[in-house]
Amino acid sequence: MSLYVDRPSVIHRLDPLTKLCYIAAAVTVPFICPVKSVALLVAAVTYILLAAGRVVTKVLPLLGFVAPVLLSIFIIQGMFMPDNHALVFRIGPLYFYKEGLSYAALLSLRVIGILGAFSLLVLTTKPSDLIQALMEKGLPPEIGYVLNAVLQIIPQMANALQRITDAQRARGLETDGRLLDRIKAFFPLIGPVVMNAFVETKDRAMALEVRAFNSKTKRTFLHVRKKHPADVALRIMCLAAIILAVVWRLVG
Amino acid sequence: MNDVSLDLGGESTAFIGQNGAGKSTLMKLLKGLLVPERGDILINGKNTKDTSAAKLAGEIGLIFQNPNEQIFKHKVFDEVAFGPRRIMDAREAEARTAAALRTVGLFHKKDVNPYDLSLSERKLVAAASVLAMDTDIVIFDEPTMGQDEKGIRTLKAILEDLKGQGKLVLAVLHDMAFAAECFERIVVMAHGEILLDGPPEAVFANEEALKKAGVEPPPVMQLAIRCGFTERPVTKESFLRLYYERR
Amino acid sequence: MSIIKAEALRYKYPMQDELALDHLSFSIDKGEFIGIIGENGAGKSTLCQALNGLVPHFHKGAYGGTVTVAGKTVHETSVGELSTIVGMVFENPVVQITGAKLTVYEEIAFGLENLGLPRSTIIERVDEAIELLNLAEVRDKSPFALSGGQMQRVAIAGMIAMRPEIMIFDEPTSQLDPQGATEVFEAIETLSRNGVTVLVVSHQMERLARHADRIMLMHGGRLVAFDTPERLFAMDFSGISVRRPVYTEIVRTVQKAGGISAETVPVTLEGAAEWLVKHRG
Question: Which of A77, B165, C91, C259 has the most beta carbons within 10 angstroms of its beta carbon?
Answer without folding.
Answer: A77
